[in-house]
TrEMBL record:
The active site is at residue 309. It comes from the Eukaryota. InterPro entries: MeTrfase_TrmA_CS, SAM-dependent_MTases_sf, U5_MeTrfase_fam. The keyword Transferase applies. This is TRAM domain-containing protein. S-adenosyl-L-methionine binds at residues 182, 213, 234, 282. Belongs to the class I-like SAM-binding methyltransferase superfamily. RNA M5U methyltransferase family. One of its GO terms (biological process) is response to cold. GO terms for molecular function: mRNA binding; RNA methyltransferase activity; S-adenosylmethionine-dependent methyltransferase activity. Keywords: Methyltransferase, S-adenosyl-L-methionine, Transferase. The keyword Methyltransferase applies. PROSITE patterns: SAM_MT_RNA_M5U, TRMA_2. It comes from Oryza brachyantha.
């Protein structure tokens, strides 16, 4: 869960039908008007205060409660970042929960995203948070930019270790603060089994798999033992470092992970690995860049498994791959065989889709 710090406390006005149903509560007591919670839909500067989150684990909720009851104490000198004035210290609070490989008990990572590096200001919070036995990692990502991203330019370990572990499809994964990993682990197990089924591997270890937007290597590594070799690409350096560690951790030697921006590929892309028999593509919400679409249409892999968390950009990219892009003089060469939706985020409209494309 990623929570944001705000300079004003917005609350939902449910008892009145108004176009703008959020109202700001102005307080005279210093710091009492601050907020820590989730953004109001469609607003980058309205943070709805959250005292308890039913989506996260119980130990993670204890962390949120401790931070909430502590951080607004004026004597600590902690201030939320003001997205309009670009001043203030605390930007985001990220809480991730994994599992200890040996015991199966929860492992919690707490990541403070701040505008500068002042660990002494976080000291009182750290002292209280570390009283929770499940907390094994406290990180500090320093993000000096004016943007709203939670990824820092610098990262510091303030307590414990820099990673937590999780188990998926019989493998163990190390996850760092900035690495992508599916949030709903139980349903991710379902998702990755379906991806494996959709890949249609022969099982004789003869096929090359290209894993695009590979994150910490979860998809590629779950398929590696039935493939000849897996090549994974990801833009986040920390995720690639985790993917390499995860391959070693699970005794997988036929996987190569490369750090690179798939939105900025050039004519040399694809020269460093054999033609893939199966391509797995799991982009983030904006989908795939036209440069990557063009490359896929040129390389003509027999099968593409497209995993998407955004049906709109998924439909767009599938249209390009199947029917081409007329104004770019690109001809489509794939046929959409199946689409399987997976409910990764219950009680929300968000789903993942697994789409199988085969060369015409």
């Amino acid at each position: 869960m990623e929570f944001s710090f705000g300079t004003k406390r917005w609350m939902k006005r449910e008892w009145k039908e108004e176009k703008d149903d959020e109202v700001v509560r102005e307080e005279k007591i210093e710091g009492d008007g601050y907020s820590l919670g989730l953004h109001a839909p469609g607003f980058f500067d309205k943070v709805l205060h959250v005292e308890k989150c039913l989506l996260q684990s119980e130990p993670a909720d204890k962390v949120l409660a401790i931070v909430q009851e502590t951080w607004m104490d004026p004597s600590l000198g902690l201030t939320p970042y003001d997205v309009h004035k670009h001043i203030g210290f605390l930007k985001h609070l990220m809480i991730r929960t994994g599992r200890n490989v040996n015991t199966g008990v929860p492992e919690v990572m707490v990541n403070f995203v701040t505008s500068c590096y002042k660990p002494e200001l976080l000291g009182p919070l750290i002292n209280k948070i570390t009283e929770i036995p499940e907390v094994v990692s406290i990180m500090n990502n320093v993000n000096t930019s004016v943007g709203n991203t939670s990824v820092g330019e610098e990262e510091y370990t303030l307590y414990g270790k820099p990673t937590i572990t999780e188990m998926l499809r019989g493998l163990t994964f190390q996850i760092s603060a900035n690495s992508f990993f599916q949030t709903n682990t139980k349903q991710a197990d379902v998702l990755y089994k379906l991806i494996g089924d959709s890949a249609g591997l022969k099982g004789d270890g003869s096929e090359i798999i290209l894993d695009l937007f590979c994150g910490t290597g979860t998809i590629g590594l779950t398929l590696a033992r039935r493939a000849k070799h897996v090549y994974g690409y990801e833009v986040v350096p920390e995720a690639i470092a985790d993917a390499k560690k995860n391959a070693k951790l699970n005794g997988i030697s036929n996987a190569t992970f490369v750090q690179g921006d798939l939105n900025k590929i050039n004519e040399t892309f694809g020269k460093e690995f054999p033609k893939p028999d199966i391509i797995i593509s799991d982009p983030n919400r904006p989908g795939m860049h036209m440069k990557l679409i063009k490359w896929l249409l040129e390389v003509k892999s027999p099968r593409i498994v497209y995993v998407s968390c955004n049906p709109a950009t998924c439909a767009r990219d599938l249209d390009y791959l199947c029917h081409g892009v007329e104004d770019k003089d690109l001809r489509g060469c794939y046929q959409l065989k199946t689409v399987v939706p997976v409910d990764m985020f219950p009680h929300t409209p968000h789903i993942e889709c697994i789409c199988v494309l085969e060369l015409c």
